Amino acid sequence: MKFGTFDDTRKEYVINTPKTPYPWINYLGNEQFFGLISNTAGGYTFYRDARLRRLTRYRYNNIPLDTGGRYYYLYDDGDFWTPGWMPVKRDLDFYECRHGLGYTSITGERNGISVNQLAFVPMGHNAEVHRLVVKNTGSAKKSVKLFSFAEFCLWNAQDDMTNFQRNLSTGEVEVKDSVIYHKTEYRERRNHYAFYSVNKEIAGFDTDREAFVGMYNGLESPQAVVAGEPTNSVASGWSPIGSHALNITLEPGEEQSFIFVLGYIENPEEDKWESLNVINKKPAEAMIAQFATDAQVDAALAALAAHWDNLLSKYQIQSGDEKLDRMVNIWNPYQCMVTFNMSRSASYFESGIGRGMGFRDSNQDLLGFVHQIPERAKERILDIAATQFEDGSAYHQYQPLTKKGNNEVGTGFNDDPLWLILGTAAYIKETGDTSILDEQVPFDSDPNNTATLFEHLKRSFEHVTNNLGPHGLPLIGRADWNDCLNLNCFSTEPGESFQTTANIEGRVAESVFIAGLFVFVGPDYAEICRMRGLNDVAVDAEAKIDNMKEITLTHGFDGDWFLRAYDHYGDKIGSKENEEGKIFIEPQGICVMAGIGVENGQAEKALSSVQEHLDTKYGIVLQQPPYSKYYLNLGEISTYPPGYKENAGIFCHNNPWIMIAETVLGHGDRAFEIYAKIAPAYLEDISEIHRTEPYVYSQMIAGKDAVRHGEAKNSWLTGTAAWNYVAITQSILGIQADFNGLKIDPCIPTEWDSFEITRVFRGDTYVIQIKNPNHVSKGVVSLTLDGTAVEGNIIAPVGDGAVHHVVVELG
Predict the structure, then answer these.
(1) Within 370-447, where are the H helices?
(2) In whole angstroms, how far apart are CA 402 and each of 161, 278, 429, 490?
(3) In the chain, what is the straight-line distance between the N-terminal and C-terminal CA atoms, in Å?
(4) Helix/strand/coil (H/E/C) assignment for every residue in 727-746
(5) Which of 206, 208, 483, 558 is catalytic?
(6) Which of 333, 379, 334, 339 is nearest to 355 (CA)?
(7) Which of 96, 112, 568, 662 is the most exposed place for a label (fewest CB within 10 A)?
């Protein structure tokens, strides 16, 4: 069942009912200022850090679920409603939401009045612009009122929702002309404030929530809107809000626009005030003046569209499969960019309070966007590396505002260091810029203790070789990629963190996954060493990689598949010997991606076992059989009901590892079959089952042991976005950036005849036509560049900034 449709021409998803199976959201903002907005106008706004610089308040886990946003109420002679349906929930004569790239347009119509609410964050501005177009679609003159509404957060979102004995006494505002200024705590240590403006003369305002809403009302019936009159309240403590009231008179067919700006301002300490307790409004007034007219808003929208056209132009496909094309050309790279901006911090499943930027997460996210904005990828790599310790370990998370490691979560996730090598290598392959390796980067964010980025990579590599267990496999530490496989925790106390609690000390529990990751990323590290003339270091690294490969085959293979780990007691995890959790997806993917077992047939066995034991119609589950009880020696993974999250859920993040592994063995049909099972555009027709947005990936889909198999959770912010983009663009379609150039190595369904890809690489544009006359999956038999034959399948950078034509034949 569908609840909307793709508009590929406009790069939009069009939702035609407000009653989607779950709130379907979009993201506004590309730089420092961001907003979340749902198809019913719910959501919130923040500057850089969703925890520490929250502008508007939002209540997660609310009833109704998606309550709180930037709302606009239309009062029409006693009748009142909102164009996004929520929160008033009056029946609409027409409803449509268009989620586009960095903007959302919501249209509602009732009783001869149409209201369009367009929201976006302009490039280069720390503000959210909302343009309301109110139109009289009837045959009689109309006089109506428009009320805006935004509830200000007192900056620190966690403190805002907990420290009421203080916060209910601190709220302060100023009102000047048609602008409401939120200046809570500006009188003391803060140098920032928020403002909410409209470009027309107002009939009144409200800044106190109780005055506007009423003590015993909700946002579905605010008393000021019910009465059709603002109260001109000035907040003093309690809960400050921003609400403008505007009188509107419309002739039949007439429309008027109203431009609202919700913005953030920082002032230098010496320039905070105009006079005693009167904030310096000049920067806000200057920003407001830039969006005073429709022409200015249209120009800002055009600049936003041009920004996205430029980003998406770096990789485009024409395949004849509209679902594949829209995923590769529009929605998957769009989600990769959003995930780059947010990491795992702020979605409708992440509150923006509990998590910052992940060390592992952000390095993986790099893989999906480095070709679009390599300069920001470089900045992100250096930020990540600065949270590393001298021994090569790293903080698992850091806060985007401070760029310092998160002490609450700490370190000890032993896969983390290796991802820095992968992310850095991806950047160098894309750009050819090796100067990043010479950048001086702090350890533990200490500017007095720095080393080159290369030294950080060296310590990342050595962190594995310095931390090996009894079998010679890497020690798992607190966890590896699967944060819920906690082999050193042994927690019996409710509420203890499985990731940060270590009740038993020991250096026994080992990870086969980290072994596979080490073999996968190791060759990139060795090549980087050679690029720096460190041949001896490269040879030593390759010897250690080869040794790890042999150890994995000897101690990490269980006959038909790769083991997952050894626990604290040295017992096998993910083995035929186990009663539950006999086989896991992660080592089958990463080990085959690394080439382990390819030559002796063990890789083939492992992937066959995945298909036999883990495959379902909605994707590949994480492990089987699921855990039916809590295992003290395994930790959080066994706390979830069967079929959910890490306990045999379909974890979409590692499904692409199996896709990539299948391409290593040349199985193009199987690789694409797995791809299509979880790619959102292919799931649109089952939205009533899937529930989350049909235009972006979710982290998890309920597995075959779950009550609701096929139901998704945790959409938007997931490593799934980057890894599926890598799987389809690099491994299946086969266009890969390499140290020496652009590698062409498709592994496609045998039924495909041909497809064309346009790829921008190191300043040149390559139009690549791939022909498959013999209907094979893999194997380049000929390649020409501008009509000249090229030996092998790597195109060296031309470097002239021109368009070049590549023809590839498979056979």
Answers:
(1) 374-385, 416-431
(2) 22, 29, 29, 33
(3) 40
(4) HHHHHHCCEEEECCEEEECC
(5) 483
(6) 339
(7) 112
Kindly indicate whether the domain formed by 735-810 is annotated with CATH number 2.60.420.10.
Answer: yes
Tell me what the mean pLDDT of segment 295-310 comes to. 98
Distance of CA 688 to the CA centre of its chain: 23
| Angle ∠(652,519,403) on CA atoms, nearest 5 | 65
Length reported for the chain: 811
CATH top-level class for 4-288? mainly beta
Tell me how far apart the alpha carbons of residues 381 and 358 are, in angstroms, rounded to a whole number: 12
Identify the residue whose tokens are 């209540």. Answer: 59
Q: Identify the three-state secondary structure at position 593.
A: helix
Give dist(CA 335, CA 653) in Å, integer: 14
Q: What is the largest CA-CA distance in the chain?
A: 85
Active site annotation includes 483: yes
What residues contact residue 630 under an 8 Å CB cut-off, 6+ apart?
Answer: 638, 639
The model's pLDDT over 547-582, given as tens digits with 9 standing for 90+, comes to 999 999 999 999 999 999 999 999 999 999 999 999
pLDDT, tens only, 688-727: 999 999 999 999 999 999 999 999 999 999 999 999 999 9
3-state helix/strand/coil string of 149-187:
EEEEEEECHHHHCCCHHHHCCCCEEEEECCEEEECCCCC
pLDDT greater than 80 at residue 505: no
Q: What is the DSSP letter of 704?
A: T
β pairing state of 397-398 and 357-358: antiparallel
| Predicted confidence band of residue 404 (pLDDT cuts 50, 70, 90) | confident
pLDDT in tens, 357-369: 889 999 999 999 9
Per-residue pLDDT tens over the stretch 506-549 = 799 999 999 999 999 999 999 999 999 999 999 999 999 999 99
Average pLDDT over residues 232-248: 98
What are the boundaries of each domain within the chain?
4-288, 415-486+498-715, 735-810
Both tokens of 626, joined, read: 């699921």
Angle between helices 453-465 and 512-531 (to 10 degrees): 140
Classified by CATH at the fold level, domain 415-486+498-715 comes out as: Glycosyltransferase (1.50.10)
pTM: 0.97
Return the axis-axis angle of helices 453-465 and 416-431, rounded to nearest 10°: 140
8 Å CB contact between 590 and 600: no
Q: Are 771 and 786 in contact (CB under 8 A)?
A: no
